[in-house]
Each structure stands twice: as C-alpha cells, then as structure tokens.
C-alpha cells in the first residue's frame, strides 16, 4: 500500500471533509478524491460515504484509520529515535494537558523544561480530559495529563504519576460569606453559586458531593470558562467552587477569600497517562522528569512559583 495515499486518506478521515483535507495537504480536491478511489480499489472495500458536503467513514474506513494512526505514530517514533541518536538534546514531545492544569500548571513545567532542554520541540494541546484519553488511544500523543479516576483508566493506557487538585469555595472580600470561619454545607443551596455548564466534569463532581449531603444546588447562573467564573466572583457577583490551582495568585493578593465548607471533600485526581505499549523517547522521559516533582508537590509548587513571580 502506498504510504502517501494512506497519509492522504488519514487526513480526510480525521477532518471528515475532502476539501479541507485537500487545502491542508496543498493538493487539489480531484487529486484527493482520486487517491481515495484508488485506495478503495486496492482494498476492494468502500472507505467513505458522502453526507452532503462532509464524508462519513464506513466500518472499513474506521478500521483503516485506526491502523493508519498507529503506523504513522510508529513512523514519528522511529524518526525521533534516529534524531536522538544524532542529537541527544533534540527530539519532539507531543503532549496535552486538561484545561485547568494547562492554564495554571503547564507554564511552570514548560518554563523549567525549556531552561534545561531548549532544543526540544514541544507540541502542546489544551483539551478536556475525554479528548486527551481519545487522542492517546489514537496514538496522537506521547502522554497527557487528565482529570480522571485511576481505577477507570482504559486498559490500553497506564498511569505514570498522579496528584490531587482541590476544589475550594471562594468569594470576594466584600461577599457576605467572606468573614465566616466555616460555611455550613447546607448554605450552598441559597442560589449564590456560579457554576460551570452541566457537561463540565467539575460541575458533576460538585453536584455529586453536595447530593451526598442532601444539598440541591440552585445556581446563580452558569459560565463555560473557569477564568470567566473567577473574574465574576472577584467582581463581587456570587461565589464559586473552583480549582485551588487556579486561584493562588488572587488568594495571595487578597482579591479572593477561601471560605472553608463543613464536610465538603472535593479532591479530583490529576493523572499523567500514556499508552502502555508505546516507548517514550528520551525527550519525553526528560519532560516527565521535570513534571514529576511539580506534580508531587502540587499546590506548594504553584504557590512558590506565584510568590516568586509576584516579587
């Protein structure tokens, strides 16, 4: 099978669109269409079906896509291994962090890694946790940091290291709860909470924990972005239960106040996952070595970095 034809098919399969694939590959649409037809004739199976302007993969197309992803992942691994033999300080790392860790933890890791390994190329994506898991299963990443229960890790993946975040209640200094030593958990049904959208993993975790205490949430309103939630709270509009990683700077500056909540235990796990059957390159191993102590110390590492940055 011609690997260039397979590469063109994979781009079409990933984008589910012939025209867009042609644009990204700098080829004409007829050339891409002809390549797909050629592959179909070669394997004696229909690979795609047109659905309006888009395409859908047949079962054979999905099977070929999966094997193509594995094949080209192995090709990249081979190229990285050969490159590292020429230049041990070089290489590439493909990684993804979930949105909270990507905004508040990743910059610290990248800063330290770049100081030690300036020649390594990093390809970084900020995705939600299910997207990271799928990208790992599709051979698109070396590793990813996800918010997940380690007990439900897919069998193809393994957990390299893990730490815990903490979800805490924060309010503005002017809020009516700001001077409380402890807030009764039952007070969270007063319609003061600004929440993430219903599809949010964090929101689901909050609702499940409050349900355990017999508390039903009546939200003030919902937002789809952690930074928007934080800014709204800082402006004095309501309260929020939010990642402790995300508010260290504001807590140190006194722009937000942490209000302890009785009997509330919200500690989502952050797990570094990778494929169990994929060899990590020296560059990827070096990145993990930089990441490991930061994950181990979690909030303390972020607090220290925040303090140094604020001096």
From TrEMBL:
Pfam family membership, one = HTH_1
User: What region holds the HTH lysR-type domain?
Assistant: 1-58
List GO molecular-function terms, semicolon-separated.
DNA-binding transcription factor activity; transcription cis-regulatory region binding
Q: Coiled coil located at which positions?
A: 64-91
The entry's keywords: Coiled coil, DNA-binding, Transcription, Transcription regulation
Among InterPro entries, the record links this protein to:
LysR_HTH_N (IPR000847), LysR_subst-bd (IPR005119), WH-like_DNA-bd_sf (IPR036388), WH_DNA-bd_sf (IPR036390)
What family is this protein classified in?
Belongs to the LysR transcriptional regulatory family.
Q: What is this protein called?
A: Transcriptional regulator, LysR family
Which organism is this protein's natural source? Ktedonobacter racemifer DSM 44963
